[in-house]
Amino acid sequence: MVVLSKIYTRTGDAGDTALGNGTRVKKYDPRVEAYGTSDELNAFVGVARLEASGEMDAALARIQNDLFDLGADLCRPDMEKDADAEYPPLRMVEAQVTRLEAEIDAMNASLEPLRSFVLPGGSVLSAHLHVCRTVARRAERLAVDLAGQAPINAAAVKYLNRLSDWFFVASRIANNDGKDDVLWVPGAHR
């Protein structure tokens, strides 16, 4: 369990921070960039939830919890030492990816196929979900970059990849099941 009794510690005043295993790194370290961006995404999901209700809100709440799992996973290097750890680190699992895929398939079943690219917008919720989609893509790029430098959990990258797709399909659901999507018209204003 996490207990936070004091919020500021002053330990990062020199520009470094502690990873999940206690190792100190610069705040611009690729690992910090990756899990920091997942935290940023979580904040944007919170904004989107202000406009959501019912199952959409419940799904976004699940995603917010998953994003904390993702941050916990990404902030903990030394995957090869997981089995020896006194407290095994929290890692993303394939079931979280599979759940997103099932939710994408269920949402997409009610949508007409696209005939053009969708511009971010339409409803307020859809616009917020598009912001979430683009931040998820950035988090994915950062995680892939990190994976090129250090071992990371492959399920974390897969989760981010599916999550951006989830946000895209959810944005269409939020636009009256795609009927109110704003479609790109190539060269319309030349």
Helix content: 40-55%
The Rg value, from CA coordinates, equals 18 Å
Biggest pleated-sheet summary: 2 strands, antiparallel
Q: What is the approximate shape?
A: elongated
Q: What's the level 1 CATH class?
A: Mainly Alpha
Q: Quick summary of this structure?
A:
This protein has 190 residues and is mostly helical.
Q: Can you put this structure into words, describing what you see?
A:
The protein is mostly helical and 190 residues long. The protein is built from five helices and four strands. It is elongated, with a radius of gyration of 18 Å. It starts with 15 loop residues before the first strand and ends in a 7-residue tail after the last strand.
Features:
two-stranded antiparallel ribbon; Hypothetical Protein Ta1238, Chain: A; single chain; two-stranded antiparallel sheet
